[in-house]
Amino acid sequence: MSKIAAQVYLKNNNNEYRYETNAIYDKDLNILKFQELLPVKTQIHIDMNSLQITRENKELKMILTFDKKQAKIMKCELKGINQTFSFKLQTRKIEVSQQKFLVEYDTYVENELLDHIIFEITFQKNLI
After folding, report:
1. Which of 89, 93, 113, 112 is nearest to 103 (CA)?
2. What is the pLDDT of residues 53-109, one digit of tens each?
3. Which of 7, 47, 52, 102 could form a disulfide with 120 if both were Cys (CB 3.0 to 4.6 A apart)?
4. Torsion, Cα of 65, 30, 35, 88 (10° steps)
5. Are 97 and 32 in contact (CB under 8 A)?
6. How crowded is the C-beta side of 125, counted as CA atoms within 13 Å?
């Protein structure tokens, strides 16, 4: 595992964030991990082989799986009230390279568009 510098871009219907962070990259598993500080401290785990992002903080846990061929039903665990809700995720775009992971997707609840999200992380796989 290597520590790397990463630049994160996150945009949804209400907010847009750009920031730099330190991440840990596991070359053997092709997994990137970092802590997102905005708007809530959240652990992010990106599996670039399975095209999956896990987002977990003290309030929730979500595992997002991206597939351009078909919409997926995702679950979000709300920890404070010990409940889970489902939503549909429709992937619009996926780009994975040696220095970038980008997904653009829509989330739906009861067939109503909830959010349009762009998430991009760029990085250099050099030790810092």
Report:
1. 93
2. 999 999 999 999 999 999 999 999 999 898 999 999 999 999 999 899 999 999 999
3. 102
4. 0
5. no
6. 13
Number of H helices, E strands in the chain: 0, 10
Which two tokens mark 81? 């009230």
Q: Note if the bond before 39 is cis, omega within 30 degrees.
A: yes
> What CA–CA distances, in Å, run from 74 to 16, 23, 29, 63?
23, 25, 23, 7
Task: For residue 121, give the amino acid letter.
Answer: I
Instruction: Decide: 25 and 32 in contact? Cβ < 8 Å.
Output: yes
Q: Please check the confidence at residue 128 and state whether its pLDDT lies above 60.
A: no
Q: Which residues, other chains included, contact 44 with Cβ-Cβ below 8 Å and sequence gap of 6+?
A: 32, 33, 34, 35, 36, 53, 54, 55
